[in-house]
Specification:
Elements: E1 2-6, H1 10-20, E2 27-31, H2 35-45, E3 52-53, H3 56-61, E4 66-69, H4 76-85, E5 90-92, H5 100-113, E6 117-119, H6 127-132, E7 139-145, H7 153-171, E8 178-186, E9 189-199, E10 202-209, E11 216-223, E12 226-231, E13 235-239, E14 244-247, H8 254-257, H9 260-272, H10 280-300
Parallel strand pairs: 1-2, 1-4, 2-3, 4-5, 5-6, 7-10
Antiparallel strand pairs: 7-11, 8-9, 9-10, 11-12, 12-13, 13-14
Helix pairs in contact: 4-5, 5-10, 7-10
Length: 301
């Protein structure tokens, strides 16, 4: 199975290539326009010259069975379009694109061509978060905070807050009928944003503070007098009277803890089985992010 990896930045090197590089039956092909990076990463994986490519044309000529896109978001539309038009099942690191119109076009193209398109929302596969789907969820609270990183609203929401948005959608136990957004914008930079989703019998609250003084990610789901808390995707604390704590095992890889390994395997298993994956649900997350962007800009006006 020939699998291409386009873009060799931090997320590819730290999260995806350690998984892809160790899979039996996978012939890994790398593509980046930076020769030094290509040589260093390919040497580390002991890949022959035939599996190293400096342009997309050469990579496509290798006859890919699947591709992973980890290039900068601004070039996602161009790269994903080329892959889908070539009939290559494609997994894209979130987001699909910065502009909703581009995301809509890519999803429509994939459906028109009958080609798999998946978006890398790895938290849906992270064990701590996936297990929360089996817990009472009358109230969902997720915080994903940073230190000293206020940013332009669209890039912050689509590059980072989108994880919060998608996790709330994933865990919401029913249809959302109310959406509320609060934010603080100063000098054109988004300091914090709060998203509230509500439906019959549940409320989901997502928070991102880029000036919080702490880099942290905390998910809490509660209901029926019980609560489950997941801290930094690694520590699960169940509260029902006396708290019980489950920590990531010492030998559990970070890629598995964060759901990346599971997401990769699920995608490749679908490709092998000839199952076409749809990005229509992922598009709904992008649509909700667009609502957040517009609400933040209205408050800043």
């Amino acid at each position: 199975m020939k699998v291409g990896c386009i873009g060799l930045g931090d997320i590819a090197q730290k999260a995806y290539l350690p998984v892809l590089g160790g899979l039996p039956g996978v012939e890994l092909h790398l593509q980046t326009r930076t020769p030094a990076t290509l040589a260093r990463v390919a040497d580390g994986l002991r890949l022959p010259e035939a599996q190293r490519h400096q342009d997309l044309d050469a990579l496509l000529a290798a006859g890919l069975d699947a591709a992973f896109v980890h290039a900068p978001t601004v070039v996602h539309p161009e790269i994903v379009t080329r892959l889908l038009e070539a009939g290559v099942p494609t997994y894209v690191d979130k987001p699909l694109a910065y502009e909703l119109a581009d995301s809509e076009r890519l999803v429509a193209l994939a459906e028109e061509r009958g080609v798999s398109l998946a978006v890398g929302f790895n938290r849906r596969f992270a064990p701590g978060y996936a297990q929360c789907a089996d817990h009472p969820r009358e109230l969902i609270l997720m915080q994903k905070n940073r230190i000293g990183l206020p940013e332009e609203p669209r890039s912050m929401i689509l590059d980072d807050f989108i994880h919060v948005v998608d996790t709330l959608r994933f865990l919401a136990p029913g249809p959302v009928d109310d959406v509320t957004v609060r934010a603080r914008v100063q000098d054109g930079l988004l300091h914090h944003v709060v998203l509230q989703l509500a439906g019959d019998g549940f409320t989901a609250l997502g928070v991102m503070n880029r000036l919080s003084g702490s880099a942290e990610e905390i998910l809490e789901v509660s209901g029926q007098d019980t609560k489950r808390q997941v801290v930094n995707l690694a520590e699960v604390i169940d509260h029902k009277g006396q708290p019980t704590v489950r920590r990531r095992g010492d030998w559990v890889p970070v890629a598995r803890q964060r759901g990346i390994e599971q997401a990769v395997l699920a995608f490749l298993d679908a490709v092998r089985a000839g199952k076409v994956l749809s990005a229509r649900d992922a598009l709904a997350t992008h649509e909700l992010c667009e609502r957040v962007v517009h609400a933040v800009r209205e408050r800043a006006a």
